[in-house]
Amino acid sequence: MKKRNFCIALITLLVTFSCQKGASQDEINVTTSQKNDWLNANLDDEFASSQKQVKSYLFSSQDFSKLTSSPDLHHLRFVLGYENGIIKIDAAGVNSVGKEINRINSKVLFATSNQDKLTDLNEVTVDLTRKRTAVLNKHLLSPKIAFTGIEAWQKKLDKVQDLNDITSYDGLRIRSYAMETEVITSIINKGGIEKVGLFLGLNSEGKMTTILVGLDKDNNIKKASATSKVVDGVYDFSQPSPPATGDDD
Fold this sequence. Notes:
The chain is of the alpha+beta class. Helices cover 34% and strands 27% of the residues.
């Protein structure tokens, strides 16, 4: 009887492991497919019309907390994909040799009249009195410049002929953006930050970039207080690949 029970338990364990392995492989296949779809996507009027409805990509602070707690984590990678006619963005944890060790998905926040409070970025300032590390200072961005960059991206979606150029370097479409983990932990460790909003914008070179902002539970830009015009930080200057090499599988 004990032998029979042991055999049943062993079979159950093997089946469970097989299913988990199969599900994991399915997820990898889907991710690879979305990544390849982005690299080959036709950035035409249909794409621009759909992408223009995207306000930002939301990552929960809780998910980021789990992602950044891995002992093997070296830095983060925001990976671009393509799904349902729009850009898809995941955040991946990467080890010291550039291999992905875990990943979280974002939720697309579509623009609506009652949620469109992006203009807040044009009305706030960063608290420059706060002491920051060299890494944080390197990525710190003026909210007004962030607002201008996001608006510039939206305007480029009206000029379809420019999209292939601004999403590429030397003819190669951007696959991902690398960012130090410290930037994300600095955002999510602040009180009241429920989500990290990733906005697409244009950098000083006129290329697509990522802009990271801490948001509250209602997807509003988190300020020091309800009446404050100060935010803790807005961050950019992630490293795109290409032109960077060695940071993308």
